[in-house]
Specification:
The strands form 7 sheets. Strands 2-9-1-10-11-12 form a 6-stranded parallel β-sheet, with helices on both faces. It is an alpha/beta fold. It has 16 helices and 26 strands. It is globular, with a radius of gyration of 23 Å. Strand 7 (84-89) and strand 8 (92-98) form a beta hairpin. The chain folds into 2 domains: 3-229 and 461-492, P-loop containing nucleotide triphosphate hydrolases (Rossmann fold), CATH 3.40.50.300; 249-447, Class I glutamine amidotransferase (GATase) domain (Rossmann fold, 3-Layer(aba) Sandwich). The two termini are 13 Å apart. Catalyzes amidations at positions B, D, E, and G on adenosylcobyrinic A,C-diamide. NH(2) groups are provided by glutamine, and one molecule of ATP is hydrogenolyzed for each amidation. Residues 4-225 form the CobQ/CobB/MinD/ParA nucleotide binding domain. Residues 250-432 form the CobB/CobQ-like glutamine amidotransferase domain. InterPro entries: Class_I_gatase-like, CobQ/CobB/MinD/ParA_Nub-bd_dom, CobQ_GATase1, CobQ_N, CobQ_synth, GATase_3, P-loop_NTPase. One of its GO terms (molecular function) is ABC-type vitamin B12 transporter activity.
Length: 497
């Protein structure tokens, strides 16, 4: 049996719900795979075979005890601007499309998605499907391959997730159910009320009213929980403004307009005050500055130049502040970017910030997607302390070092003093060794005590513990007997239809 998890809106907790279900089933010895037909996110992950999928599906796969693969997210949209997205199909770049032209691909993409789902179901027996955004986007019903058209093709039971923290949960649930197409509404088997602050028992009367209004059972009221799992998309950045670590170490991550894979810094967020700083905001007072990845290096570089970020970086360099570029940020730190019309509509040469003597060229529609394991080989006080690290590369373009020391074996570049370096390696600071190397140096420079990141906190053990904690939290507040009925029944809704 399989199940679809839809939401009343974006950011209500669909991804976490699917991860929790996958882990709960895995802990019971039930084989299950996650699936999201179409994801729009700049936070992505590279699988063992070099396929690119949304990071949420990778997290869900790990929660299910599986290696992530392309079938788990057959269509990934990566916005390059307000009107254009790169379409990644079955893990590989398909093409860049204008949004108005994308819907011409709907039937083909839905067919590919359904085929991917069936492959997963044949191999794993059970699949937990995640929808996208809000389920009741009535203007999109004819082309919504992540919610309505997919639900119509699969005919699976649906669990609807709502976010009570935002307020208006009754309108969310009642309105969504009322607007669903008549053939889809009967598939809704239950509602989960998510992100409740306080004692869920206080919402008992609310549960009765919801069930009375909708005729659909409420399967659980889940309290808000701060369990360290990677964020799915940029909506999560707003949540980070309220995070307080109490650490005197301050790290600025420049908030690029098309920021990608900011999950790279979520381990650092637990040990330092990490601020996502808007371009144009002063970088004075920070102990370290990071330029993160971006889906469009050339256009984001132009935004940063207009905002005066280059001068802020040069002043920070004069103060001896470490400056680190990841992927697109690495490219921006160089002297020059040569674009043959791959990143921007207009071919040309663009001046970088010039803090690294490297040149990046975009000469063809080719994307590097690969998992990597490398040893930090660069000079200075930070890189040599990192040791061996692992991560993944997702990038267009190639960068020439022009004689600078490598930051890592075979990749990246560093200034001779090691205080400015760049790398294409996403996930670098998810390695406890890399996080410790950076934080220990920053703590010493500031003259404050340093508490090392442990393997329990930041390594594989910590991630596995987070999945188990998530599952336990979910199981404690949800009617698992009702949910398990969908996975222990031998007949699925497709065969009954």
């Amino acid at each position: 049996m399989s199940l679809i998890v839809l939401g009343t809106a974006s950011h209500v907790g669909k991804s976490v719900t699917v991860a929790a279900l996958c882990r709960a089933l895995h802990r019971r010895g039930i084989s299950v795979a996650p699936f999201k037909s179409q994801n729009m996110s700049l936070n992505s992950y590279v699988t063992a075979d070099g396929s690119e999928i949304g990071i949420a599906q990778a997290v869900q796969a790990f929660a299910a005890g599986l290696e992530p693969e392309a079938d788990m997210n057959p269509v990934l949209l990566k916005p390059k601007g307000d009107q254009t997205s790169q379409v990644v199909l079955l893990g590989r770049p398909y093409k860049d499309v204008l949004i108005r032209d994308y819907y011409a691909e709907t039937d083909m993409l839905l067919s590919e998605a359904v085929a991917a789902f069936e492959r997963l179901r044949r191999r794993f027996g059970h699949v937990v499907v995640e929808g996208a955004g809000g389920a009741a986007e009535v203007n999109l019903y004819d082309r919504d391959i992540a919610n309505i058209r997919l639900a119509r093709a699969l005919r699976l039971p649906i669990v609807l997730v709502a976010d009570i923290e935002r307020g208006g949960v009754f309108a969310q649930v009642y309105g969504t159910l009322a607007l669903l197409p008549e053939d889809i509404r009967p598939l809704v088997a239950g509602v989960i009320v998510n992100k409740f602050r306080g004692d869920p028992g206080l919402f008992a009367s609310g549960v009765e009213r919801l069930e009375g209004l909708t005729g659909v059972p409420v399967l659980g009221v889940i309290p808000y929980a701060d369990i360290p799992l990677p964020s799915e998309d940029s909506l999560s950045i707003a949540d980070k403004r309220d995070q307080k670590t109490g650490s005197p170490i301050r790290i600025a991550v420049v908030r690029l307009p098309r920021i990608s894979n900011f999950t790279d810094f979520e381990l650092l967020e637990r040990y330092a005050a990490v601020d996502y700083v808007e371009p144009g905001t002063t970088l004075s007072g920070y102990d370290c500055i990071i330029l993160p990845g971006t889906k469009n290096t050339v256009e984001d570089l132009a935004v940063l130049n207009r905002a005066g970020v280059g001068e802020e970086l040069r002043l920070a360099r004069e103060r001896g502040v470490p400056i680190i570029g990841i992927c697109g940020g690495y490219q921006m730190l160089g002297r020059r970017i040569v674009d043959a019309g791959i990143e921007s509509e207009t071919p040309g040469e663009y001046q970088g910030f010039g803090l690294l003597d490297v040149v990046t060229a975009f000469t063809g529609y080719h994307k590097t997607t690969v998992q990597v394991r490398r040893r930090a080989t660069g000079p200075g006080p930070i890189l040599p302390a990192m040791g061996e690290v692992e991560g993944y590369e997702i990038h267009m373009g190639e960068t020439e070092r022009n004689g600078l020391p490598e930051a890592f074996s075979g990749e990246g570049a560093s200034t001779p003093d090691g205080l400015v370096f760049g790398t294409y390696m996403h996930g670098l600071f998810q390695n406890p060794g890399a996080a410790n190397a950076l934080l220990a140096y920053l703590a010493e420079r500031r003259g404050v005590p340093f508490e090392p990141v442990t393997e329990i906190d930041g390594g594989t053990l910590g991630i596995e513990a987070a999945y188990d904690n998530l599952a336990r939290h979910f199981e404690e507040h949800v009617d698992m007997d009702a949910i398990m009925a969908y996975f222990l029944d031998a007949t699925d809704a497709t065969s009954e239809a």
